[in-house]
Amino acid sequence: MPARMTSESATFDRLDRQILHGLQLAPRVPFARLGAVLGVSEQTAARRYQRMRTLGIARVFGAVDHARLPGAATWMVRLTCRPGTAMPTAEALARRPDTSWVMVGAGGAELTTSIAAVAGQQGLLHHLPRAANVLSVSAHQILHRFAGRGEADWIAGDDRLDDNQRRELITPTEEVTINTDMSQEDQPLINALAHDGRASFAALADATGWTQRRAASRLNALTAAGFLRFDVDTSATALGFHAVAHLWFTVAPADLASVGARLADHQQLAWAAAVTGSANIVAVALSTDAAALYDYLTTEVAAIPEVRNCETVPVLTRVKQAVSLVDNGILRGPLA
């Protein structure tokens, strides 16, 4: 488990934000290259990242992109639980590999999670309504993501890498069509990358029992085929965002794309997507405090006349990020 942070150890500066932005753009980029782009040494870039990872502030991970799997879909699910059962339910959901972003809303009764489901299979979406501690279930399929493949935009703020730095960091690669499928044999590789998305080929070989050449070849093939993605998990609390809320927007279907495009430019949103249901856009807003959230709602959101309604659901506790379990606001990695 990561070390507990102190006010001294948790300092987070411009270079840290730029390192995280660089890793969001190129999660497995060598630290020598990242350091060169940022004007620091390889050792400094590596040391800064390892410090943030140890403290549970941020960590690179690899994960299956369920949207690319045949018949798969991702759902945002809102649960209302019996009094006193929301946290135990959230913790149980967080330990499942098919969930992410498990959060308990203010009041301790509502729980929101993201679930990966496959058509024709009786998975979690089928069983949740039958759970004794669940009073109601509202499931919303994610149709289109407007913002939030990575979280660096709100992490980095005004310290984001400029266009020249992005070009130096990201090497254009020739698009190739990879004919491959995922199999059960890939699971040890996926598990290892969930724990450390920057794991070396030697470490991946140890985790899988493969040769380094085979581990590298399989990682590259799954990534090129779109089955495997890399990103950065971050602790919003550790970065100073103490007012987190789900925003459920209702707009006319004709305005869905334009409103989504405007929301994608809002730095306060870590994630936004079009979903099924009467509230057809959901977003996650991060603010330093309640006053900042109020300012955002009454200025930038209020400036979008096509928004007919906005339900604001404050998050009391975040139990899981994309793959990382969260303990008192600190990332402690995925399940063993």
Automatic annotation (TrEMBL):
<protein>
    <submittedName>
        <fullName>AsnC family transcriptional regulator</fullName>
    </submittedName>
</protein>
<keyword id="KW-0804">Transcription</keyword>
<dbReference type="InterPro" id="IPR011008">
    <property type="entry name" value="Dimeric_a/b-barrel"/>
</dbReference>
<keyword id="KW-0805">Transcription regulation</keyword>
<dbReference type="GO" id="GO:0005829">
    <property type="term" value="C:cytosol"/>
</dbReference>
<feature type="domain" description="HTH asnC-type">
    <location>
        <begin position="186"/>
        <end position="222"/>
    </location>
</feature>
<dbReference type="InterPro" id="IPR036388">
    <property type="entry name" value="WH-like_DNA-bd_sf"/>
</dbReference>
<dbReference type="InterPro" id="IPR019888">
    <property type="entry name" value="Tscrpt_reg_AsnC-like"/>
</dbReference>
<dbReference type="InterPro" id="IPR036390">
    <property type="entry name" value="WH_DNA-bd_sf"/>
</dbReference>
<dbReference type="GO" id="GO:0043565">
    <property type="term" value="F:sequence-specific DNA binding"/>
</dbReference>
<feature type="domain" description="HTH asnC-type">
    <location>
        <begin position="13"/>
        <end position="53"/>
    </location>
</feature>
<dbReference type="Pfam" id="PF13404">
    <property type="entry name" value="HTH_AsnC-type"/>
</dbReference>
<dbReference type="InterPro" id="IPR000485">
    <property type="entry name" value="AsnC-type_HTH_dom"/>
</dbReference>
<dbReference type="GO" id="GO:0043200">
    <property type="term" value="P:response to amino acid"/>
</dbReference>
<feature type="domain" description="Transcription regulator AsnC/Lrp ligand binding">
    <location>
        <begin position="249"/>
        <end position="316"/>
    </location>
</feature>
<dbReference type="Pfam" id="PF01037">
    <property type="entry name" value="AsnC_trans_reg"/>
</dbReference>
<dbReference type="InterPro" id="IPR019887">
    <property type="entry name" value="Tscrpt_reg_AsnC/Lrp_C"/>
</dbReference>
<keyword id="KW-0238">DNA-binding</keyword>
